[in-house]
């Protein structure tokens, strides 16, 4: 029974060469109107005693055709994959194309670390202009005109700010120390980040705020100086804390915390008495570097003249401040020997020292 159906399907299936034609055959034999399906639907018309034998036979044909189709399908799929593998060959021995990889500059990395530490200690970031006026950079910080400290700073002076009707040499003669912008008269590239202390306190007072003030600032600073350990542009970080009853012990604690969080406790640190016009008493902090000490920051108790200049009563409040050189901190922590290379934009240097 069904011999011709079997031979016909066997023959047709074996001749097929692609999976689409094979699918057509599946429909032809096993589909809703397929040849095998048609035979199976005849079961309903048979007498009960005929059903069993016929049913077994037709099921056998269906199983056989199904197996033929499945086997052929597997075989065709395999040869189709092999054909694709043959034509879409990839030469895996080719070297990979180099992928350019960016790195984070050590200065940017250190600034991120410092931000995390000082924010963690409760200091809030304040920004200030790189082009400062003489008042904020010097005068308000208790560095009067003709004070030798002004020479020490190797200041870059800029022409006076337009529109200004002050004569170019009239630095320092300002009607009001308040205001956010750049005043007329002499403009400078800020020689340190300390003027941001002044601006931050001025803004607090202008807004009617009272201490505690706890701020830090960070950014570029400029001095006309260039050698192994100096570049005309460099970076500083500055912190300021004003409150009732702040004393030198608080300063030492904060500096120690800042330094050990940044360097780790294996670095040796020392405080050394020093002088800054805007702090009294003042100190400098050194970190041991081989058999030498390298100065990384200045600090001290904010001078009462500085407090008076921004309208904070020194009888009621006191505070401390510190300012550190970021390149120095990066050199020490990450073992970078030459300061000038920070700003040479040499990609090989950045590949080596970057993050
Ligand atoms: N402004 C100083 C400098 O550039 C560093 C400094 C010293 C900052 C003492 C301070 C400070 O806030 O209290 O050399």
Write a brief structural summary.
It is built from twelve helices and ten strands. The protein has 355 residues and is of the alpha+beta class. The chain binds 3,4-dihydroxyphenylalanine.
Question: What is the fold's blueprint, element by element?
Answer:
Layout: H1 3-15, H2 19-30, H3 35-41, H4 48-87, H5 106-120, E1 124-125, E2 131-133, H6 134-137, H7 148-152, E3 157-158, E4 187-189, H8 195-206, E5 213-222, E6 233-243, H9 248-263, E7 269-276, E8 279-289, E9 292-302, H10 304-310, E10 318-325, H11 326-334, H12 347-353
Helix pairs in contact: 1-4, 2-4, 3-4, 5-11
3,4-dihydroxyphenylalanine (DAH) binds next to strand 9 and strand 10.
What can you see in these coordinates?
30% of the residues are buried. The model is unreliable at 163-180 (pLDDT under 50). The protein is elongated, with a radius of gyration of 42 Å. The strands form two sheets. It has a seven-stranded mixed β-sheet with strand order 1-5-6-10-9-8-7, sandwiched between helices. Strands 2-4-3 form a three-stranded antiparallel β-sheet. It is α+β, with helices and mostly antiparallel strands and 355 residues long. The chain is built from twelve helices and ten strands. It has two domains: 2-87; 106-353, BirA Bifunctional Protein, domain 2, CATH 3.30.930.10. Helix 5 packs across helix 11. The structure holds 3,4-dihydroxyphenylalanine. 3,4-dihydroxyphenylalanine is lined by residues 192, 194, 238, 276, 279, 298-300, 321-323. 3,4-dihydroxyphenylalanine binds at residues 192, 194, 238, 276, 279, 298-300, 321-323.
């Amino acid at each position: 029974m069904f011999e011709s159906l079997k031979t016909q399907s066997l023959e047709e299936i074996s001749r097929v060469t692609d999976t689409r034609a094979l699918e057509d055959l599946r429909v032809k034999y096993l589909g809703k109107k397929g040849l095998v399906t048609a035979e199976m639907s005849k079961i309903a018309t048979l007498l009960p005693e005929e059903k069993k034998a016929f049913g077994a036979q037709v099921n056998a044909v269906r199983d056989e055709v199904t197996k033929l189709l499945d086997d052929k399908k597997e075989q065709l799929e395999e040869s189709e994959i092999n054909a694709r593998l043959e034509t879409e060959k990839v030469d895996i021995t080719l070297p990979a194309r180099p992928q350019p990889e960016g790195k984070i500059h050590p200065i940017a990395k250190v600034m991120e670390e410092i931000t995390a530490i000082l924010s963690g200690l409760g200091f809030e970031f304040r920004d200030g202009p790189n082009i400062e006026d003489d008042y904020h950079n010097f005068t308000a910080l208790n560095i009067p005109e003709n004070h030798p400290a002004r020479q020490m700073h190797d200041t870059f002076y800029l022409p006076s700010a337009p529109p200004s009707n002050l004569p170019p040499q009239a630095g320092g003669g300002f009607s009001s120390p308040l205001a956010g912008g750049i005043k007329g008269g002499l403009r400078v590239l800020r020689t340190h980040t300390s003027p941001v202390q002044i601006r931050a306190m001025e803004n607090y007072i202008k807004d009617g705020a009272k201490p505690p003030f706890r701020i830090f600032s960070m950014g570029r600073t400029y001095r006309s100086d260039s050698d192994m350990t100096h570049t005309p542009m460099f970076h500083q970080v500055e912190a300021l804390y004003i409150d009732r009853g702040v004393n030198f012990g608080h300063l030492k604690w904060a500096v120690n915390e800042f330094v050990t969080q940044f360097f780790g406790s294996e670095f040796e640190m020392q405080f050394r008495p020093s002088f800054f016009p805007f702090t009294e008493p003042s100190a400098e902090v050194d970190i041991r570097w081989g058999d030498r000490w390298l100065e990384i920051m200045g600090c001290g108790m904010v001078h009462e003249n500085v407090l008076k200049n921004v309208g904070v009563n020194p009888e009621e409040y006191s505070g401390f401040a510190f300012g550190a050189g970021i390149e120095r901190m990066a050199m020490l922590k990450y073992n970078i020997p030459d300061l000038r290379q920070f700003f040479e934009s040499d990609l090989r240097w950045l590949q080596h020292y970057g993050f």
